[in-house]
Protein: ATP-grasp domain-containing protein
Amino acid sequence: MLGSTHGTLTTDSRRARVIACGDQRPGPAVHDRVADLDVSGRPLHADVPDLNRFFRPESVAVIGASDAEGRPNTGITRQLLDWAGRVGARVHPVHPTRPAVFGLPCAASVAELPEQVDLAVLLVADPLPLIEELGEAKVRFAVAFASGFAETGRAGAEAQERLAEAVRRSGIRLLGPNTNLNAFERFRDDLTGPAIALITQSGHQGRPVFALQELGIRLSHWAPTGNEADLETADFLSWFAEQPEVGAIAAYVEGLKDGRAFLLAADRAARRKVPVVAVKVGRTETGARTAASHTGKLTGADDVVDAAMRQYGVIRVDALDELQDTAALLARARAPRADGVVICSISGGTGAHVADLAAGAGLRLPTLSPQKQAELHQWIPGYLSVANPVDNGGHPVGDRRGRKIIDALLADPAVGVLICPVTGPFPPLSDRLVKDLVEAAEETDKLVCVVWGSPAGTEPAYRDVLLGSSRVATFRTVGNCLTAVRAWLDHHRFVTDYRSPFDMAPRTPSPSFRKAEALMQPGRQLSEHAAKQLLRAYGIRVPREQLVTSAAAAVRAAGQVGYPVVMKASGAQIAHKTELGLVKIGLTSASQVRDAYRELTDIARYEGVGLDGVLVCQMVEQGVEMVAGITHDELFGPTVTVGLGGILVEVLHDTAVRVPPFGEDQAHAMLTELRGRALLDGVRGRPPADVDALVEVVLRVQRMALELGSHIAELDINPLMVLPRGQGAVALDALAVCR
Structure:
């Protein structure tokens, strides 16, 4: 091993406005001054509390302290005393009936504390009655271990909201409730190098990362956020990103209190090039339900969470062992010099297997040049393949030739990563090999990875040599190695070109907003005609069409629009026109138009559907049917979706999603995620589609989401016909539901 709910968005917006006016919260929070708000009034920068006095307080009050043997509070008090001694904090026990605890004089109440304290630890079943006292005493931070809040259901959630409201009034910052002692663990102080900062919503799930210290990986902080009535994952993420000793942030997240706050925090980390690796629970319904019962958090729609994390460079992994290995590599490894990966093994079978897995993981395995292969064949028998993967045959790495092979590979300018799988110990050959790899790693700025496959893990070559190196990245499984290397390369590509989406967010409404706002009908679905007017207001092209209320007018409109035409019933509550027979296509004559008008109105009358008229539309046939739209996520608010349209959207569900704001690069990235992306490039002789026009529509829909997010519950443009390259894109149908 290489050494909230959606409603919370409103709360954050209000807090940002208060800070912008200079009315900061009293006590611990020294926030960034948030002067910029987006067009919807939401902050564009993270609100970062100063947590230094939480992690390294000068004085600590332990309320409910005990030294009576057999009581749970006694063990906690003892651990807090040990921790305070390590960080140099003065401890003040508080208990109404005890004169002293562990020899320290006891205050009878918070009001009788001998000095203002930085941190109060609440060892009580109900922390609510203490909050006002703590605020009056100007306590900076408090920790509440008590459970029985939002994780238990509605009554607990209401109790937690009362606690949160009391905290807001008091000016203190609270960790918990339903948290634990992880923040006060004993961290090794003999380790050097960049550290991992850890955030968990379940203490036990952080244990594997904490245990990395036994393998020589430094940890600097552990934030067990619990139910997050006040301090949340985003607060710690923002603060950790600014600490100079933090090389990577590892997080175990069951649910998010506030999606917007999380993205602002991830943005802060990305701006500072600090990698964030996270396990996020909720990929399945069972996982989401269990997480909610554990911390009372919203897990969110997983595809939206996944997209939002990618959008801001958060590396999502599935298992705790992946969290360990990926965070450790990202914390310690230098930036890559090249993205080429070379596999070097003592077995041809091993090399081929690992190379196959690496290519499947999306890593680039360049074929070594003829010159490099000839150089390698000086030390490796000529009958062995050295193109990449490199089969060294075993015996050459057991003597002086091994170091020459390693140096030759690392000297190749196309190679940025050397991966050496050792499927099992084979002394003395494997001992010599790892010694050469460690020595070579000390002399190169390229990444050297070893996969030590022995199930024992007790061999000196592993325990002493590999784990004793701060430059070799050692893994126990090939899968974790490849996951970590891919994440490392992806992270550095991402931060190299990163431009904060929040820097691109509009601050003021566009001229389109006023036109669109006038079309809104709160709580109602717009007719297709009105929905298309909404699209026109934002510059999204729709077909030539007219709304008519008589057969004669329909005939005149068809002549003006140009045959062939499509005729559709238009009404505020029509969602599925085709299923009701309320669409007629390919009409080529006046008689067909008259008959179609009568048939459409008859069907509408029979179905009890109210009409505002019949649309006579230009018929657009040649193109790729796509879908674009807006939906509301309970965590992140308005989101933008694009995918294959027509009936394919219901059959294949081939869509990509992003959380506004985002730029043109992310709009293009959405298209690359689609399984049917090749349709836009032209297949079976069809011309390539106008991808640039499609991207422009996605960006205009995003502008609608940003400006009309409080007005639109749903927008569905389907089909959005993307014409051949250079001809644009046309919204053939649209559905809009107002909030």
User: Anything to note?
Assistant: Residues 478-496 form the longest helix (19 residues). Confidence is low (pLDDT under 50) at residues 1-34, 286-297. The two ends are 52 Å apart (CA to CA).
